[in-house]
Amino acid sequence: MKLKKEKVLLIGTSFSAVPLLHYLKSLDYIVAVCGGLKDDPCHKYADESFFIDYSKRDELLQLCESEEFDYLVPSCNDYSYNSASYVATKLNKFYGFDKFEITNILHTKNGFRKFTIDNNLSVPQAIKYTIDLNLDILTLNYPLLVKPDDCFSGKGVTKVIENSGLKNAVEIARKNSKNNEVIIEEFVEGSLYSHSAFIQDGKILIDFFVDEFCTVYPYQVDSSCISYNLNEAVKNRIRKDIQRLISLLNISDGLLHTQFISDNTKVWLIETMRRCPGDLYGSLIKKSMNFNYSEFYCNSFLNRKNTLAELRMDTKYIARHTISTGRDLIFKSLKYDLESKKLDFYPLKESGQILKQAPYDKVGLVFYEFDTKEDLIKNTINMKDFFIVDNYDGIVNER
User: Fold this and answer.
1) Tens of pLDDT along 358-368?
2) What is the pTM of this model?
3) Strand 6-11 relative to strand 29-34, pairing
4) Over the range 48-80, which residues count as b (16 or more CB within 10 Å of their CB) and which as e?
5) Whole-number Å distance between alpha carbons of 101 and 284
6) pLDDT in tens, 51-92
7) Do the Cβ atoms of 114 and 263 come closer than 8 Å?
8) What angle do CA 297, 301, 306 make, to 5 degrees?
9) With contact defined as beta carbons under 8 Å apart, do 266 and 286 qualify?
10) First and final CA of the chain: distance in angstroms?
11) 98 neighbors 106 (Cβ within 8 angstroms)
């Protein structure tokens, strides 16, 4: 008797989810996807498609109640993981998810700040905005960052130098928040990094540190590379804080991805997530280190153990860059001043399409291999200078 194939649902269908779909399709599963945009690439390659808005948790719950999915795999945005965690908690099934109350701590800025401050972890001082909060007598030190509680990619974030700009910044953040909540935190000086840690049996199995730069829009990463200058003392401080976070919350196996700021002495955890980072972050790790990030990410949701036994990593000096602009325009073409045979380009726009300003849109992603570590370190922060986005003359009309 032929055994019935197991069925996995990938939650999310954008280009960033394609590496996850590719790995899932390499296994002996029926692979379904869900997402509301019918032209998204994952719909074209999956075995089944469900056209739902998975950010509406009860829609995803209804789908999982009516279909016999053996596994859920969230893709590369907070909505996919949050909804999947909600469903897994409600149905008391599926692998690799924390309980939904833990997800609310890790995936909302207010929840994360309160937990980390209460437990003396290294974070900027912050306060949750409430309607009765007197903005004129805040105890925080300026400058401040005002952020939506539940948004990603730096949308709705404003730096405030003095009290007069605070009220407007709060309104901008609220408009960009689905739950209508805002966090106000102290601005800290330093360089931005990310830390991707794969957890197994309550410990960090393997991790990666990446330099991150925001060169077009100040709160969205557009250039990055494996970190070579971050000192070991800072790395170990981050590992210590992350290991403590894992233990305090009893975090399940899988990825814990964190952004942090460091001046190469002090560190401040900024935000953390359990879903796969977007903009082909995993491809940066794979191209740079020959490490299958998608495999390690997906395995925890598939009830598969990761192993380092046969891991054979090597090093290439790869920079990742998201091409975007500081204003709305009509995209015409892309020009670049880099050797083409070392350039991988993933286009996301066609000529004649409207390109919205960062952080709301992008032309595409590029990966470029430099010859030396020194060239990589010197040029990653300047990647935007190698690309010119040519546009058609005219006014971009909102419709």
Assistant:
1) 999 999 999 99
2) 0.92
3) parallel
4) ebbebebbebebbbebbeeeebbbbbbbbbbbb
5) 31
6) 999 999 999 999 999 999 999 999 999 999 999 999 999 999
7) no
8) 55
9) no
10) 56
11) yes
